[in-house]
């Protein structure tokens, strides 16, 4: 696994993030397996990045990632010896958290509208 233009392409991830779900999440499971087993810092960096992009562009990505055990592996790499792996793991975790905050923000807006409508 190596960096290629598609890894950094917003259009690619927007159009293809859901494809990681095909064949019972086969590609996503491969990425998680790489996070578990690989010692190659380039592979770990790319896998963290791809998982972050998946969670950013697939609305249920965070839940799927948690169910497959991927979140724990991304978080483990926050303390990796290599700074590039740590950086990509941090970005992936941020994407997971932003998704949470966006959801909470929408809930707050919804609750505020319902409260306003009642008064």
UniProtKB/TrEMBL annotation:
Tell me yes or no: is Signal among this UniProt entry's keywords. no
Q: Name one GO molecular function term.
A: proton-transporting ATPase activity, rotational mechanism
Spell out the GO cellular component terms annotated for this protein, sorted alphabetically and separated by semicolons.
Answer: lysosomal membrane; vacuolar proton-transporting V-type ATPase, V1 domain
Q: Name one Pfam family in it.
A: V-ATPase_H_C
Enumerate the UniProt keywords alphabetically. Answer: Transport
- Fetch the InterPro entries from UniProt: ARM-type_fold, ATPase_V1-cplx_hsu, ATPase_V1-cplx_hsu_C, ATPase_V1-cplx_hsu_C_sf
Where is each ATPase V1 complex subunit H C-terminal domain found?
1-101
Query: SUPFAM superfamilies attached here?
Result: ARM repeat (SSF48371)
This molecule's function is given as: Subunit of the V1 complex of vacuolar(H+)-ATPase (V-ATPase), a multisubunit enzyme composed of a peripheral complex (V1) that hydrolyzes ATP and a membrane integral complex (V0) that translocates protons. V-ATPase is responsible for acidifying and maintaining the pH of intracellular compartments and in some cell types, is targeted to the plasma membrane, where it is responsible for acidifying the extracellular environment. Subunit H is essential for V-ATPase activity, but not for the assembly of the complex.
UniProt protein name: ATPase V1 complex subunit H C-terminal domain-containing protein
Organism (species): Cherax quadricarinatus (Australian red claw crayfish)
């Amino acid at each position: 696994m190596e960096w290629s233009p598609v890894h950094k392409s917003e259009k690619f991830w927007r159009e293809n993030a859901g494809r990681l779900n095909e064949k019972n999440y086969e590609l996503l499971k491969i990425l998680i397996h790489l996070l578990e087993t690989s010692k190659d810092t380039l592979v770990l960096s790319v896998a963290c990045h791809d998982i972050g992009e998946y969670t950013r562009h697939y609305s249920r990505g965070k839940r799927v990632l948690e169910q497959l055990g991927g979140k724990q592996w991304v978080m483990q790499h926050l303390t990796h010896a290599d700074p590039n792996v740590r950086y990509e793991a941090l970005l992936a975790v941020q994407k997971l958290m932003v998704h949470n905050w966006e959801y909470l923000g929408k809930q707050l807006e919804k609750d505020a509208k319902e409260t306003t409508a009642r008064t």
